[in-house]
Design goal:
Elements lengths: L7 E6 L3 H12 L5 E5 L7 H4 L31 H14 L6 E3 L3 E7 L4 E6 L2 E10 L21 E4 L13 E5 L3 H10 L5 E5 L6 E2 L8 H6 L5 H16 L1 H5 L6 H16 L3 H6 L12 E2 L12 E4 L5 E3 L2 E3 L3 E3 L2 E4 L15 E3 L6 H8 L15 E3 L11 H21 L5 E3 L1 H14 L31 H10 L5 E3 L1
Parallel strand pairs: 1-2, 1-6, 2-3, 4-17, 6-18, 7-16, 8-9, 8-16, 9-12, 10-11
Antiparallel strand pairs: 4-5, 5-6, 13-14, 14-15, 19-20
Helix pairs in contact: 1-11, 11-13
């Protein structure tokens, strides 16, 4: 495998946990000529950008970590965001990745040089060439701003939850928050007691289940250090995570998991909300799993407060002084808890990508629907791998996904070295076979329940597909180590 005419053998785009995880495994496997580039000024990805009040992981911390780097000092079962940021920093330092990271660089485009079998990346810091590119930009990357008339006319303070302005003091302010997704569920209970009045604008109620969260006392942290303690804890945590979403969503028609979850969610709602009218407005009209559920012990009860209003009427416009529905809702601060561009153009990856013959990835996906072999590779784009491509993620822990996809990529890189190959490209036949399999298996998913039509879920792309992998985590892990290498052409 030649390195002539390239800056690095491998460029990793993104210094979040995906980029950190693949970099660690590359070093372990003897691939030392790589660099990580990121537009931020620090590592952590989602946990670098998201610092809003109440930010925390939404699955148990024991599952939200690398299997090879398990912490024993989480402060809670569901760790706060600052601990995830610190975990990212500690991984970077322990595995000596920091000298390989270049911050403040945005990739704006990439072209495959067919004659030299290399990628030319166009960045805000000039051109960078690499034999292989690993896209680790994630999907919770680009904030989604609402397209509401007049939003730019608002004269108060406006901020998206992923770009929280900590200079703003919300005490005594009239605050309007648009959205009731994952970040809103965490922010709302944190700020409700500080503000003069909080108006929550809800388009679609979210399934909110009780969160088995509690502080981890010293005794519990010590128990994690006992031989087998971390293994048992992680096994229990992984089983819980698997049943709360992947199995409930992908095996909706054959397992009672979703029905059990719905009963728990409705019971939680009855216990938490006193006003029957407010309770009815907070009750989802779609099956559990159509969109990702949230877990909170204090979100729903926040609507019992006298200074909190739930508004379900559609927003007609933003005015200079507030939000207008059928009436005017005055506000000093406008918080956009409107999530991210997930299954949308320009987000997977976040830059313009051209492969063989100038094929544009975004255009190809527009014409052929979102697809990628095992969620990693796309035909016509040699030497390019994704950590979270279409039909790669099944809804479980992102860390499991990172490790599975990295295992897949390393098998390809090792085989290329063995064959002294400069080009790795998945075959059209293999990609088509995998895509047909994904479509054939999706019939049992909850997403095709008629009730999902009202869920406004970001899982659905513009083609009406849900590019999540209809498989268990165990199956995904096994396949990452056993897919036929003959599904790729090594030249």
């Amino acid at each position: 495998m030649s390195t002539k005419g390239i800056d690095h053998e491998i460029v990793i785009v993104g210094a979040g946990f995906s980029g950190i995880g693949v970099a660690i495994e590359l070093r372990k496997a003897g691939f030392d000529d790589f660099v990580i580039i990121d537009e931020a000024d620090g590592v952590g990805g989602t946990w670098h950008w998201n610092t809003y009040p109440g930010v925390a992981v939404d699955i148990p911390s024991f599952s939200y970590q690398f299997s090879f780097e398990q912490r024993t000092d989480w402060s809670r079962v569901y760790a706060p965001g600052r601990e995830l940021k610190a975990y990212a920093e500690s991984c970077v330092d322990k595995y000596e990745l920091r000298p390989r990271i270049r911050f403040g660089i945005t990739v704006v485009g990439a072209d495959f040089d067919e004659e030299a079998d290399r990628w030319v990346l166009h960045t805000t810091d000039g051109e960078l060439t690499a034999r292989f590119v690993i896209s680790a930009t994630g999907v919770l990357t680009r904030p989604k701003l609402p397209e509401i008339p007049g939003i730019e006319s608002f004269t108060g303070t406006t901020m998206h939850t992923s770009r929280w302005d900590h200079r703003q003091d919300l005490r005594g302010k009239r605050v309007a928050i648009i959205g009731t997704g994952a970040s809103a569920v965490q922010v709302i209970p944190e700020i409700a007691s500080q503000v003069q009045h909080l108006t929550v604008f809800q388009r679609t109620p979210i399934w909110c289940l009780p969160r088995p969260d509690l502080p981890l006392p010293l005794a519990a942290r010590l128990a994690l250090k006992i031989p087998g303690g971390r293994t048992v804890t992680r096994l229990v945590s992984q089983t819980y995570v698997e049943f709360t979403f992947p199995l409930a969503a992908h095996y909706h028609r054959s397992l009672p998991t979703a029905a059990i979850g719905e009963r728990a969610g409705l019971a939680h709602l009855r216990r938490q909300v006193k006003d029957p009218a407010v309770r009815a407005a907070l009750t989802p009209k779609y099956a559990l799993g159509c969109k990702r559920p949230s877990f909170s012990n204090d979100y729903l009860s926040t609507f019992n407060r006298a200074n909190v209003t739930l508004e379900t009427e559609a927003i007609s416009e933003i005015t200079p002084t507030g939000v207008h529905t059928t009436t005017e809702h005055p506000a000093d601060v406008l918080i956009l808890a409107t999530g991210f561009k997930v299954m949308e153009s320009g987000n997977m990856p976040t830059y313009d990508l051209h492969g063989v013959g100038g094929r544009n990835l975004e255009t190809w996906w527009d014409e052929n629907r979102l697809q990628a072999y095992e969620g990693v590779s796309v035909p016509g784009f040699p030497n390019f791998f994704s950590i979270i491509g279409p039909y790669g993620y099944n809804g479980a822990s992102y860390f499991t996904l990172i490790e599975n996809q990295t295992r897949h990529i390393l098998r390809c890189l090792h085989h290329a070295r063995t064959k002294d190959a400069d080009r790795i490209e998945v075959t059209e036949e293999a990609n088509d076979r995998y895509f047909r399999e994904m479509l054939a298996r999706r019939g049992g998913q909850v997403f095709w329940d008629e009730s999902c039509a009202v869920a406004n879920s970001y899982y659905f792309d513009k083609h009406g597909d849900v590019p999540l992998r209809p498989a268990s985590t165990l199956e995904s892990a096994w396949r990452s180590g056993h897919f036929p290498l003959t599904d790729y052409a090594f030249t």
